[in-house]
Design goal:
Elements: H1 13-23, H2 27-43, E1 47-48, H3 53-60, H4 67-83, H5 85-88, H6 97-102, E2 106-108, E3 118-123, H7 135-149, H8 153-158, E4 160-165, H9 171-174, H10 179-191, E5 197-203, H11 209-216, H12 222-225, E6 228-232, H13 235-239, H14 262-270, H15 273-280, E7 283-284
Parallel strand pairs: 3-4, 4-5, 5-6
Antiparallel strand pairs: 1-7, 2-3
Length: about 280
């Protein structure tokens, strides 16, 4: 497996304590919610979702075990997949393999932050060649990664943190972004993803970042807005949210500099193709 491995083991007692405090999760609440959601899904004649407990938990944890809210999330995902069918239909890791392996745009850190959250870095500047990798390509990679992240109970419970690094961003990058792409990404994050996004951090933004932000700002809802932080080149501000002990030296942390990327991460995706196919089968009938 190398440096990367999905943590698919059942949650630890420590994680279950977090789940109880933040998500209302207890054995009793869990069992009742699973049964209620299963009945709701089976009664929804227009939806196609597996109803095994492990799969339903993916939608119950982010909705704090309220079955009707979980069903709404499932409908949102089905609607999103329908809206962006041309981009997402039957999307498999092999379809984005070249972006993973040949371009250092998206990286998953091997460690978690001080709260146990998964961390992802998205390079939107000097390492991104818009001629080779389009805005849509980047989204397809992000969508593939989220399918794998939802497999991890620790990530279901603790959530994720995303760092957008704009170092070296120029006009060629700005011109490669669109209002439609911004809307797609933010609709996904806010309405059609079961991942708990606990923080989005923007670093190394140049002056023309304001042009990028003008694309995204109209679609940002209040809840997510409170979890967005703009640090510029002041990494000490980032460290107030993500401790230095959890970050590589590239980002002012005490861990070794990043020496890995998508090339090392991609093989993990190939090891979970059965789940990805299962996810791809979900949506409207």
């Amino acid at each position: 497996m190398g440096k990367f491995e999905l943590e698919t083991a059942p949650p630890s007692e420590e994680l279950l304590a977090v789940a109880k405090q933040e998500l209302r999760e207890t054995p009793e609440v869990r069992a009742a919610a699973v049964e209620e959601l299963r009945k709701l899904v089976e009664a929804a004649t227009d939806l196609c979702y597996p109803t095994d407990e492990e799969f339903l938990i993916i939608f119950l944890r982010p909705t704090k075990f309220y079955a009707e809210s979980a069903l709404k999330l499932m409908r949102n995902i089905a609607e999103f997949n329908k809206t962006y069918k041309e981009t997402l239909f039957n999307l498999m890791p092999a379809d984005v393999q070249n972006v993973f392996i040949e371009h250092n745009i998206i990286n998953i850190l091997t460690n978690r932050d001080q709260h146990g959250r998964r961390m992802m870095v998205v390079n939107m500047g000097e390492t991104w060649d818009p001629k080779a990798v389009s805005e849509e390509h980047i989204f397809r990679v992000l969508y593939t990664i989220h399918k794998l992240a939802v497999l991890e109970p620790a990530t279901q419970i603790s959530g994720v943190v995303v760092i957008y690094d704009f170092k070296g961003m120029g006009m060629k990058h700005v011109r490669s972004m669109s209002p439609g792409g911004a809307k797609r990404l933010l609709t996904f994050i806010q309405e059609a993803s079961p991942l708990r996004v606990k923080g989005i951090h923007f670093i190394n933004q140049p002056m023309l970042f304001s042009m990028v932000w003008s694309l995204f700002k109209p679609f940002v809802q209040e809840k997510l807005n409170k979890r967005m932080f703009f640090h510029g080149d002041k990494l000490s501000k980032l460290h107030e949210h993500v401790h230095k002990e959890c970050l590589p030296s590239n980002y002012g942390g005490t861990l070794p500099a990043l020496d890995y990327g998508g090339k090392q991460w991609y093989p993990v995706a190939e090891q979970h193709l059965d789940f990805i196919k299962k996810w791809n089968s979900c949506g409207f009938k």
